[in-house]
Amino acid sequence: MDYIITLLNGIVENETYAKWLFLAFAFFSAAALTISAEILFTNFFNPIKKKLHNISGNNKDINTAEASQLDKTLESIEKYVTPNSVREKHNTRHLLMHAGYEKESSLTTFYAIKIVLVIIALFTSLITTLFFPELSSQSVIIYTLMAMAFASFLPNIILNRMAEKRIKALRNAFPDALDLLVVSSEAGLGFLAALNRVSTEIGPVSPSLSHELQLIGQKVRVGIPMHTALNQFIERTGLIELQGLISIINQSVKLGSSMGDTLREYAEEFRDRRMQKAEEEAAKIGTKMIFPLVTCIWPGFFTIAVGPAVIAVLDAFGK
Question: 165-171, long-range: CB within 8 Å, 24+ apart, which pairs?
Answer without folding.
Answer: 166/98, 166/99, 166/100, 166/208, 167/98, 167/237, 167/238, 167/239, 169/206, 169/208, 169/209, 170/206, 170/208, 170/209, 170/212, 170/237, 170/238, 170/239, 171/239, 171/241, 171/270, 171/274
